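Hello Y.,

Per our agreement to keep a running log of every chain we model this quarter, I'm adding this entry. I've kept the format consistent with earlier entries: sequence first, then predicted structure.
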Amino acid sequence: LITNGVNGLIFEKNEPEELTKKLSKIVFDKEKIRQMGIQSAFSIASKFSIKETIRKTASCYRALLSEAEHR
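Predicted structure for the entry above:
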């Protein structure tokens, strides 16, 4: 879901210094923050849209039905 520096920041858990370092690099870069927000919204909308969810669910059902027919 997250691409580091594109639509969010990835850091090791229990490593607040790493998070602080990454945040300090972008905290005053309003354009970078704006772009990351846009990319985040696009990523979520494309991966979790109703249309995509229906497509994946239908595909899953078709696979299960096909498997059942071959038994």
